[in-house]
Design a protein that fits this description.
8-stranded mixed beta sheet; alpha/beta; about 300 residues; TIM Barrel; 4-stranded antiparallel beta sheet; 2 domains
């Protein structure tokens, strides 16, 4: 566990690592990429190299948060999915024991398997089984949503008692309507971000604007993490003759010479240029969106 570059949290804690793909959003998984790199590094402890990205529990890491006195926000299992079917319920009970023993910290769990949460938190037998509608006041539960089909994960999340429920729309692969305008109850925070890595897919700026506007209309805090590897550029023949990516609102894309496309581009099509995560930045319409929910452990 340690300081992390993830903008919406302070530290990461990985008592569980590893995962298996469940959707299109997993294609370019950053955690799998990091695990593969570590497995090739002889300086990394043998077991960590051996396990790679297989679902693994690390009892020796359980007590790490107990050593921290200063309050901080902690992302639980940034390198895996704690609600994976292969994670024993008893081990999750141990993780919850530590969270309960550290009321000064705010812990966040993020999953693509919300259908497992109820059984993992309420169906097991352990010292920290949460029953009768109880929940830990310093634990937020969230789901990842990458496209419209994945929005159904939110419905599973909303069935679970929690101090805070959130959604991470990352990587955003198409327009997403969360249903916030219809008064979707119990959703406290929305995070959004583009994909990173060598095979990253671009994110249309109008997808992000729509999500931001949904949150603003519903009074839900909106946090824009980053554009990923791609940035939107104005349509102009001054861009030269390089082949750039023309991204449609439906997610379809085509490479073409910009100068030749000026009079033939489709409505809503955006010109995307791969510039790298740092250059793409976090600005959305000239503003940094760092809104967060109020969580008081």
């Amino acid at each position: 566990m340690g300081k992390t570059s993830i903008q919406w949290t302070d530290y990461s804690w990985n008592p569980v690592t590893g995962c298996t793909p469940v959707s299109e959003g997993c294609r370019n998984c950053y955690a799998r990429r990091i695990a593969h790199r570590l497995s090739q590094n002889p300086a990394v402890p043998h077991r960590e190299r051996y396990e790679g990205f297989r679902v693994s529990c690390w009892p020796e890491r359980l007590e790490e948060p107990l050593r921290w006195r200063k309050p901080r926000t902690v992302f639980v299992c940034s390198m895996g999915d704690i609600f994976h079917s292969n994670v024993p319920t008893d081990f999750i009970d141990n993780v919850l024991e530590i969270i309960a023993a550290c009321p000064q910290h705010t812990f966040l769990m993020l999953t693509k398997r919300p259908e497992n949460i109820e059984d993992k938190l309420y169906g097991g037998k352990g010292a920290r089984v949460l029953g009768g509608g109880d929940y830990l006041p310093n634990l937020g539960l969230g789901v990842t949503v990458e496209n419209q089909d994945a929005v159904k994960r939110i419905l599973h999340l909303l069935k679970i008692p929690a101090a805070m429920r959130f959604v991470s729309v990352e990587p955003m692969l198409e327009p997403v309507k969360l249903g916030l305008a219809k008064g979707l109850p119990g959703l406290d925070w929305v995070i959004c971000g583009g994909e990173t890595g060598p095979d990253a897919r671009p994110m249309h700026p109008d997808w992000v604007r729509s999500l931001r506007d949904q949150c603003q209309s519903a009074g839900v805090p909106f946090f824009f993490k980053s554009w990923g590897e791609w940035a939107c550029r104005p349509w102009s023949s001054d861009n030269g003759r390089k082949r750039e990516l023309c991204l449609g609102m439906d997610g379809t894309s085509v490479y073409a010479q910009v100068g030749h496309m000026m009079g033939f581009r489709k409505p809503g099509e955006a010109l995307m240029v791969r510039v790298g995560k740092k250059a793409a930045g976090r600005l959305l319409d000239g503003q940094i969106w760092d809104q967060r929910p109020e969580v008081s452990p």
